[in-house]
């Protein structure tokens, strides 16, 4: 990947996802999922489809952000990203796309049958393994991303990054709470962190030509 392509990818990916997440439908009350989603099911399906497609791209962006770092904190960040990918994807498929598909189906049914499917959607969303609000998949996915970003912030700081960059990477952990305004704001923080990181690496390349490929490796 060329330098220009990497930079475009690292900045455009979080900003594009932030723009889409800004239109995330509210979803309604936890005890009335169908009623909360039914009036904007098209928007719900669009946002969660895009979110699902961008999940691995955001993980890749963090891997690229950590390029050249071999510290213990960087390793923790990379491993935590795998946890995020596995569990948050499972949660997103279930609560995001699954709920949208079932809601779209229920919208085309007679009122009496809608009530039956609405109960099924509610039960589906309250599953302890994959649903809301505190399922195994959701908690593991949230922690995976948050630990990954906090560890990334620590790794970058220990490698010599300044506090503004460190804080922005840490704030990116809030992306795990993806509905607006929290999710989009965290993604903007990530994009700003990328800009600062690229400038930092460029300064290192000018001052230390021998390590132009990235920041110096640090021991854990």
Q: How would you describe this protein?
A:
It is a single chain. By secondary structure, this protein is an all-alpha fold. The chain has one domain. The protein is 72% helix and 0% strand. It is built from 8 helices and no strands. It has helices at residues 3-21, 33-37, 41-65, 72-107, 111-125, 136-158, 163-171, 182-207. α1 (3-21) packs antiparallel against α3 (41-65) and α4 (72-107) packs antiparallel against α5 (111-125). The protein is elongated, with a radius of gyration of 20 Å.
SSE pattern, N- to C-terminal: HHHHHHHH
Count of all domains: 1
Our estimate of the beta-strand percent is: under 5%
How would you classify the quaternary structure? single chain
Radius of gyration: 20 Å
Mean pLDDT: 91
* Count of helical regions: 8
N-to-C terminal Cα separation, in Å?
28 Å
Q: In terms of structural class, how would the helical and strand content be classed?
A: mainly alpha
Largest sheet: none
Low-confidence stretches: 216-220
The amount of helix comes to over 70%
Shape: elongated
Count of distinct strands? 0
